[in-house]
Design a protein that fits this description.
The protein is α/β, with parallel strands linked by helices and 229 residues long. It has a single domain, classed as P-loop containing nucleotide triphosphate hydrolases (Rossmann fold, 3-Layer(aba) Sandwich), CATH 3.40.50. The chain has 9 helices and 10 strands. Helix 7 links the parallel strand 7 and strand 8. The protein is globular, with a radius of gyration of 17 Å.
């Protein structure tokens, strides 16, 4: 579904992502893990086009993404939930969700959103800024999924979320992925969360992948060591 080859991303003169390559299969979940400042968010922003890549290749279902604007990548089948969620605080819940439907003909909130997140239906007229952190994350995920993506990109989805809610988000993402048939790339530092959802783990260290494992072969102690050094 997603192919990334020899990707290099810079902040000014700083070489942040260094010749990174990986793939994501159909309906696969890949977790990109690492400490703060190792390049997780930069990598994800480059995939969606928020940050330009200097060199490399990114293809989605065979379609070249590099050179395309973010909205063009969304139209091609990508969806993105940024770190901090970035919902529109002064728009209602319903208006926030509808903002994600630019490329959808039927401009009504799909029933699956409210079936999956009943609290959003209850609060559909409330301003997004008045929701709790967990509710805002549900809103941000919903806003991304209403474009019917092939690939959902989540940046630090557990940040600022209560531990009890984190488990709910993991279960919900697994359910949505099964029902909506999308692949998932998630950057994260909470190992317990990724162990619930990931098929494969990639550890990024100073802009390069330092460790890779599948769910069956994952060494949790080794990952934990990377996250706590």
């Amino acid at each position: 579904m997603l192919e990334v080859r020899n990707l290099n991303v810079y902040y000014g003169d700083s070489h942040v992502i260094r010749n990174v390559g990986f793939s994501v299969g159909d309906r696969e979940t890949v977790a990109i893990m690492g400490r703060n400042g190792m390049g997780k968010s930069t990598l994800l922003k480059s995939l969606i086009g928020v940050l330009p890549a200097r060199t490399g290749q990114v293809t989605l279902d065979g379609d070249t993404m590099l050179g395309k604007k973010s909205y063009q990548r969304v139209a091609a089948g990508m969806a993105y939930v940024p770190q901090g969620r970035m919902i529109f605080p002064y728009l209602s819940v319903e208006e926030n969700i509808l903002a994600g439907m630019e490329n959808v003909k039927d401009k009504a909130v799909p029933q699956f959103v409210y079936d999956t997140f009943p609290v959003l239906h209850e609060m559909r007229s409330r301003k997004g800024g008045n929701l709790s952190g967990g509710q805002q994350q549900q809103l941000a995920i919903s806003r991304a999924l209403v474009s019917n993506p092939k690939l959902l990109i989540l940046d630090e989805p557990t940040e600022g979320i209560q531990p009890s809610i984190i488990k709910d988000i993991a279960r919900t993402l697994n359910k949505l992925k099964s029902e909506r048939n999308f692949s998932l790339v998630v950057s994260e530092q909470v190992l317990s969360f990724t162990l619930e959802i990931a098929d494969r783990f990639l550890i990024i260290e100073r802009g390069e992948f330092a460790y890779e494992a599948t769910r069956d072969g994952v060494d949790t102690a080794k990952i934990h060591a990377f996250l706590t050094v």
